[in-house]
Structures are given as structure tokens and as C-alpha cells.
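Entry type: protein chain
Record version: 2
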Amino acid sequence: MVQLSIVDEVEEYVTGFLKKKLTRDHRFHSLAHTLKVRQAAVELGKAMGLSRADMETLELATLFHDIGYAETYEGHEALSRQMARKFLESKGYPQEKLDKVLSLIDVTFPPKIPATTLEQVIKDADLSNLASENYLEILEGLRHEWEVFLNASYTDAEWYKLNYKFVKKHQFFTDTARELYGVQWEANRRKLKELRDSMQEGEDQEKKKEKKTRDAGKDAAGAITSSKSAQMMFKTALRNHLDLSSLADNKANIMLSVNALIITIAMPLAISNIQDNLFLLFPLGALLATCLLSMIFATLATRPIHMTGYTPREQISEGKSNLFFFGNFFRMKYEEYELGMQEVISDDATLERSIMRDLYYLGHSLGNKYRKLRICYSIFMYGIILTVLVFGISFAVYAM
């Protein structure tokens, strides 16, 4: 029986998983897209003369990079990394190689800028569809996905304007990609420009006037609703805040674990020898103080904020509370919550203020969390340095 390579095993797993999990609405981020990105990465890698090991890393990363779409649309990158890690670890894949694969998956997140050659290759491969001969058909698939999964609808004029702006701004990172894709990319850019211009010219003038009048009557908060870019920005910001909060909690847990380990293991060993070596008393005290203070601030960083669980009706009417956050309603009766929520969603301005309020207080909480976490790490770092210095001084005095 022929032994499958790790790339073949991953291809078999990803293909089966996506065929089973993806829906008919996944018209852009489909199995075909994954395989095309993998093929583009292979072509770029070979043209650039990459090593066999680098080619393997690229193939694994491209096969896994969009697998998370089968479970969630927003935040799929983290899930793709998770699934890749789980599968490759189950196959005993070396940790050093695994880290490279995960970093390549991570860099496919659009805002991230590639730093290495492999990261540049996978970014170019992921957007190689910009130079596809059937690019307009591919765009329709993406448009359908955004409408279904993100509830984002666009007129033809808005859609072609948005995509022309993206294609015009985009630049491939590698010389090889620019050479292979440049001609067709330029042709697609010109076609999008023609479509954008024709759609803009063909719009009904009366509709433009109505839209202009309606937009002029909106306040600053209401203007957010009409801006697709602002909506996407809010979603991205909220997701980034949540990711950063999770990262802060992980860092705090690391500090709690490390300091608890020092107290439960190192301390008893030191105390058992302190009678014969009294000079250990001072460094032991410094280490104990360091661990306790670090644990206090790590705990404060992860401690949940105070929540009343109840929002008075007048605060809802004045737009001074956010009923989308559970901490503001978990003590309310359902009837009160329903009336309050209906009042919020019935007014665009109130709804937009709720979104901004949620983002602001999430950022405020995150800032406090990282401030305490910084203090925790500073205490630990300087405390360990102080402990070592005290130990050295105590030992020198004792030896004399």
C-alpha cells in the first residue's frame, strides 16, 4: 500500500470536509477556490525556485487557509488555524514546520502585510483571482456570499465602484506574480472601470436626488448606516477587540500559572534549606512578594467588570445604554427587555449610538485590562531581577 504524503493527506481531508460542510451559498469561498489558490501558490513557488520544504509549507497553508468558512464566515482565519493545528498535530507534524504553516494562514487575513517571501507568495496566490479571465463571474459569487452571510447588499453601481477601487489599489507583492498576472489584472481593472462609469451614468437622476435629500437629513450617527465601509469597519474593530481581549486573558493565565508554580514548588524547596542557609531569607522574600503582586494584577486583569444587569427605561430612551450587552439586561424582565429593544431598533440614530457605545466601552475595558497586565509583567520582570541581585548580595555577604 502506497504511503500518502502529508500534503496528500491534508488534501484528502480538506476536500472531504469542504464537500460535506460548505453550502450552495458558498459561491466564492468554495472548494474550487481553495484548490485554485493552492495551484497558484505552486506555480509561483516553482517559478521562484523555492525549496521542496517551502513548497510543502505553502501547499499545506493554502489547503487549510479557508477551511474555517465551513463553520463561520467572520473570524474564519482563527478557526482555520485551529483546525490546521489539530489535524497536523494528530499526524505528528514537526512543531517548527507547523508554526510556519500557521503563520502563513494567519497572513491571509486581508489587513495583514506579508513580511517573508512565503507570506508574499500566499498573499499573491490568494488574490490571484484578480487576474482571472472570468473575474466578473467570480465577483458575483462574492457578492452573493456578502448578501447571504453579511447581510450586505449593493446596487450594481456600488458594487463595481467598490471593486474597482480595490483592484486599482491592489499591488502584487512578488515580481513573479506581477509578471504572470499583470496583463490580465490590468484588463480586469479596465473592465471594472468601464462598468463603474456606465452604471453611474445610467442611474436614475430622481433617485439620486431623493438619496441626497435623505442622507442630508441624517445626523452623524445615522450616516453610519448608509456607509458599507463604515459597517465593515465596525465589524472588524469589534472582532479585533474581542481577539485582543482573548489574547490578554491568555497572557494573564500564563502569569497566574507561572507564579503559582513558583510558589507551590520552588518556595517549599527554598524554605526547607533556609535554616542552614539564612542568606536565602531575603531573596526568598523578594521572590514571594514578586509572585504575589504579579498574581494580584493578573487576577485584576481577568476579573469581570461590575454589571448591574438592569437598565432604566429613561436611559434607553435617551440612548445612554446598550441593550445588546448582556450586562445591561440580565436582571430585566423579558417584557421590559422586549419593549426596550423595540425602542432601540425602531430608531436608526439610537441603534447607531448603541453600536458606538458598545465599541467604546469594549475598548475602555480592554485598555484597563492591558494596563493591569503591563503592570503585572513589569512587576514580574523587575521582581525576578531584584531577586537575583538580592541573592547575589546575600550570598556574597554570607560567604565573607
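Comment: Confidence is low (pLDDT under 50) at residues 216-226.
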